[in-house]
Specification:
Layout lengths: L1 E8 L5 H17 L4 E8 L6 E8 L2 H7 L3 H10 L8 E6 L2
Antiparallel strand pairs: 1-3, 1-4, 2-3
């Protein structure tokens, strides 16, 4: 199992709109990717301008393959206008 963790800075005043978009469109789109076991996310409690995205993949190759799909381009189009800066991404091989 391979976990992708991303912290996404969300533009001030658009946090609720971003969370709703992710719940209704973004997370289901990511979860439907081949090899994605789960897609979860949430807004920070202390810092609601920070969104965490947790994706579980069956393998690194599935994650890399997804980044080359139309679905990934659609996700970027949906989410991109909400970003207040670059996201911080980390990847973990689970034990």
């Amino acid at each position: 199992m391979f976990v992708e963790r991303a912290e996404i800075p969300v533009k001030e005043g658009r946090e609720a709109e971003f969370a709703a978009m992710m719940k209704d469109q973004g997370l289901p789109l990511l979860a439907s990717a081949q090899g994605c076991a789960s897609a979860r996310g949430g807004l920070g409690v202390e810092n609601p301008g920070k969104f965490i995205l947790l994706l579980e993949w069956d393998a690194v190759e599935s994650h890399v393959a997804f980044t080359k799909t139309e679905a990934f381009d659609k996700f970027k189009a949906l989410a991109g206008s909400f970003f207040a800066g670059a996201s911080i991404m980390e990847h973990f091989e689970m034990l």
